[in-house]
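Why this split exists: single-chain examples teach little about how molecules sit against one another. For that reason, every record in the complexes split bundles all components of an assembly together and asks for one structure covering all of them. Below is a record exactly as it appears in the raw files.
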Amino acid sequence: MYNEVYKNLKVRKFYDKIYDWAKSLPENIIVKKKNEAENLFKKIGITFSVYNNFDSTERLIPFDMFPRIISGTEWKKIKNGVVQRALAINAFLNDIYNSGEIVKAKIIPENLIYKNPAYEIKMVGFKVPKRIYSPIIGSDIIRVDEKIFKVLEDNCRTPSGVSYMIENREIMMRMFPELFEKLKIETVENYPHYLLDVLKSLAPKKCNKEPKVVILTPGSLNSAYYEHSFLADLMGVELVQGTDLFVDESITYMKTTRGPEKVDIIYRRIDDRFIDPISFDSSSLIGIPGLFDSYKSDNVNICSAPGSGIADDKAIYSYLPEIIKFYLGEEPILENVKTWRCYKDDERKYVLNNLNKLVVKEVHGSGGYGLMIGSKSSKKQIENFRKKILLNPENYIAQPILELSSVPIFDKNRLSPRHVDLRPFCLVGANKTKLVNGGLTRVALKEGSLIVNSSQGGGVKDTWVLNE
Amino acid sequence: MLSRTAENLFWSARYIERADSLARLLEVGYRISLIPNTEAGYNNEWESILETSGMKNEYLKKYKNISKEQIIFYLLFDLENPSSVKNCITSARENIRMVRTAVTLEVWNAINTSFHELDKNMKDTKNILKELPEIIEWIKKQVNLIRGTILNTQLINDGYDFLILGTYFERADFTARIINVKYFILLPSINYVGSDIDNFQWSLMLRSISSFRAFQWAYGGQEITYIKILDFLILNMTCPRSLIFSVEKIHHHLDRLTKFYKQTSTSKKKIRSIYKKLKNLNANRISDIGLHEFLKSFIEEINFVYKKFEQKYFFGLET
């Protein structure tokens, strides 16, 4: 396991100042600051909801004060790699919903795309504004050693967590201003500005004025509601729910105290199937009847485009190096994690013979659900997954059990290592890409745990990209 | 602004005002309970408080018998009472949370902190009477804090108008209701008008709307009389709890909205006529018309204004 802070019992150079600082904090100050941070989160209202069958309650996401540091050189590589992937993914989506060159070239099997449940047949042949399907991509990156960062997955639909990236920084700056004098740290506060700029560049064809952007949320009970309202606030755009919008003669409007107002670009934070009860799931109460028609008649843009989710598919992910080469003619800058696709006979055979050494994932699973970590599962759980794979091999991939790198947390006021990952947010607009120098570091708070998702006991840290 | 945003702002402010009114009403109950009952007549002060709150029927459905601890709990913390202070503050926060971006961070902090601290003040029913003054103080303090942040930090735009309208629609309704209750429910019979108990109850009513001292100042420390009270609570523009004051505020902010949106509205026209009518009225005349009749029609008229206002700005209908 790669420890980002220590090397042979010595502290790595980027961490020396922070380590000394952390070590010098008296116990009572740590306790005090922890409470202070918690109160700040509570006060600002940064909570997320946890769903269960009985109610939905607000919880605070655990925040750890020990920052995660990435050097300027390391960051440059991550940044270039993430941008490269984001461009390739958009080119791929554009291709598969139009001429399908990548299939014709036999680089990706036909069935994997055209028979994929995430392939949206209604999008075939439609020219999305500026050919950008997924303007916001959050790639989950893990570090395996000194040199190598790998991408675990790319989230192309509605990746969340960016509000924590910004608020974590806000809180660290409020609590420990002295640290920001010791180190030169890149700022992340421009994100909302970049996002608005990128969205505005994606106006639909029939918009010939300054485009009106809104954020569409499922509502205040959604787990990421805080983030939706946070972004709307910082971007200065309306946060709307389905009931605030309506479509009349293929034009989308929102209901305002002044009367109906035309909407041009919708940054939606609801799933494809809920956006329009006429074109998709007819039981959706949070959608807008007629929205898809308005979209297809070039009156409104929906970001991300319906059908983008196919690029989240973990079997498609395994082809990303080929996708990058095919569309960009470049070698991938960031590596993928070795992935066995269970629909292939030889790869499935390997997986079934090595279940206890692998992580098996559903191709559309997310949030740390729908997966099995072989080394941490009982015989029964393993056999259960074996059956599932045999029954429906297309639905599974497997990867080696990775040792995520570790960074210490304040655990009972002592420093103790925990596994982390990193999610930068890449923005893709018309002829431009933007990325703030930073990202969200998620940390598995349980000792030894590899699951960093907030819904399953994960926390967050501020992430510092050094300006060197 | 989104219609839903306007609606959430309005209701948030309205719930805050309601919590405030309840706290002040409970303060009256507490004060009466400290004064020995020397007069004959009405001596179950807690029942009359419950009556004034307009929640007596609901209360009796749940508890069957009248107990002061139970009443206090019901008005303050009972989750099954949709208008309890606890539910008012929770609803105010929920409404603001849904439109978090329409208020400043300071307004949000004030409401959100009130919500989080409320549970700390939630006492078990056994000790509730003892703790009551402290709880009431806390509620009043929080409401003033919230209102202060609204006045001092919000942009004075249409959102501000909706917030202020929430406050004054609620206050106009509450004051009208409390005067009505005083005369037609609390006083054992009409023979008591002008008696000691009548005046004593009036002084309590004044306290419940925090206007006891104000009354003394406004009328030069003269004896409390029926006519003066009517003048004060209905027609005195300097009293922030009087009906005309609320009506003037509603008029002012509806007028601002029509100017802001460059549109006309039925609600504004109607509130203007109510305001003019009140301005030309005097207390003796109200007494001649009959107080009850006057209040009944006032409440109906304000409700009409509200309906038109709601249709136009919240539902997007032409009115």
